């Protein structure tokens, strides 16, 4: 049995991407799937998620912060985010949806992912803040090349009024575009495209039911809108990929050196990465 067949056999029945799905992902850079989290796991997943934000898990080591504020006041984040929630609730990585995400990535890459982690972004009810257009790779280590994807999972139904994902198909085939810290404020962790550097006119919105997912390539341009709903927009995002490759010359990502975030200060004080 060759390596691809072995991976497929190991995950048999857990991910059912068709050959058309695989082709669409590689051509367009994204997919939308109506179901990833088993319905009977959703209430427990939501309870764990809410508890992590309520107890400010990871704040001291810089893993919980305000994605779009100056992050000084832990009581009033505009859009709270948690990196590595599975570090603070290890049961997340034991749940069936996590295995289903791993199987989906194994099918996409034709190989077992070398890593799988997560982060969580909770947009409060009535939040006017979009997550601006960006590419995930703009946040990552400039010294490495990636083969990675993000699986974005809403824990309640989402549409254009409540902050669903939007993508620019095929934008993953181009370069990393210029980014800056949102609002051009280096105290803000969140990034945005720096100026009108991309054609966003053909962007596609991806409404989803609770527990569905989108899957996007690490270089694809994406955005979520404000949350005009009366309930928080909870999203859990799993990120996995093949072993990153060290580059001879790092990419030029000047916004990374410009960052002056309170999150990074807390991480440094805690001796965390
Ligand atoms: O949930 C959001 O608002 C943004 C998520 C995002 O940018 C991502 O998953 O890469």
Which structural traits does this protein have?
single chain, 273 residues, seven-stranded antiparallel beta sheet, globular
Question: What can you see in these coordinates?
Answer:
By secondary structure, the protein is an alpha+beta fold. The protein has one domain: Jelly Rolls (Sandwich). The protein is 23% helix and 23% strand. It has helices at 3-10, 19-28, 42-54, 85-88, 96-109, 254-258, 262-269, and strands at residues 30-33, 64-66, 80-83, 115-123, 131-134, 144-145, 148-154, 165-167, 179-181, 191-193, 204-206, 213-217, 222-224, 233-241, 245-246. A 7-stranded antiparallel beta sheet has the order 1-12-7-14-4-3-2. Strands 5-13-8-11 form a 4-stranded antiparallel beta sheet, with no helix packed on it. The mean pLDDT is 95. Bound molecules: 2-oxoglutaric acid. 2-oxoglutaric acid (AKG) binds next to strand 7, strand 13 and strand 14. 2-oxoglutaric acid (AKG) binds at residues 121, 131, 136, 150, 152, 222, 224, 235, 237.
């Amino acid at each position: 049995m060759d390596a691809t067949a072995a991976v497929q056999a190991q995950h048999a029945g857990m991910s059912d991407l068709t050959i058309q799905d695989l082709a669409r992902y590689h051509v367009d850079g994204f997919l939308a799937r109506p179901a990833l989290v088993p319905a009977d796991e959703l209430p427990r997943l939501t309870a764990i998620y809410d508890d992590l934000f309520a107890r400010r898990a990871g704040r001291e080591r810089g893993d919980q912060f305000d994605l779009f504020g100056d992050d000084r006041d832990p009581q009033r984040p505009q859009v709270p985010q948690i990196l590595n929630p599975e570090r603070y609730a290890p049961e997340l990585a034991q749940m069936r949806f996590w295995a289903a995400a791993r199987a989906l990535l194994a099918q996409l890459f034709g190989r077992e992912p070398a890593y799988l982690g997560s982060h969580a972004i909770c947009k409060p009810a009535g939040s006017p803040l979009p997550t601006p257009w960006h590419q995930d790779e703009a946040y990552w280590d400039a010294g490495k090349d990636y083969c990675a994807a993000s699986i974005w999972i809403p824990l309640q139904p989402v549409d254009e009024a409540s902050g669903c994902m939007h993508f620019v198909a095929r934008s993953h085939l181009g370069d990393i575009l210029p980014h800056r810290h949102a609002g051009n404020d280096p105290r803000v962790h969140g990034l945005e495209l720096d100026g009108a550097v991309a054609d966003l006119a053909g962007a596609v919105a991806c409404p989803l039911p609770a527990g569905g997912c989108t899957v996007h390539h690490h270089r694809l341009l994406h955005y979520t809108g404000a949350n005009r709903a009366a309930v928080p927009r909870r999203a859990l995002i799993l990120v996995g990929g093949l072993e990153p490759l060290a580059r001879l010359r790092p990419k030029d990502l000047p916004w990374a050196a410009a960052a002056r975030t309170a999150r990074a200060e807390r991480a440094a004080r805690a001796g965390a990465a």
